[in-house]
User: Fold this.
Amino acid sequence: MMKKTRLVMTIILVCFSVLILLLSTANMPRGRVWRAERILRQDYEFLVIAAQFLADAPNERIIISRMDIERDEIDSRMDIKDAYVIEAFRKLANRRYNVITKDGNTITFQRWANRHMGWGIAFSIDGSVPARRSVTIVTLEPLSRPNWHFYVSR
Assistant:
């Protein structure tokens, strides 16, 4: 009887573990560049405004979270005077961009992440291959617009 109970508990635990693994990667588009293309098309105007502002910023590294934008902390912290730039960041936050970063030659617009990986759209400021020092980009695929890429990071 005890062995049967232990077997049932083991099976339940394995099934639960597999379910958790599947749910944690369900939002991961793995190779579905078409989704990033659609997002780029929909949000292109706001992405370009934000990317241009960050590219012109003197800081080598900038991190802006959706929470910063929602709390209206971005315009005071970044000294943004242009209403179009503030509105672009707000639109991107409303469209579920979690973190926007500038790291060297790359600006990333993260759409989804869990503890181990994330994905989004990357913009290369100087036209070279996007690279980030703070995370490892494991997948990088060019999109239809020059200097824009789909990325998956760890």
About this structure: The first strand starts at residue 61 and ends at 65.
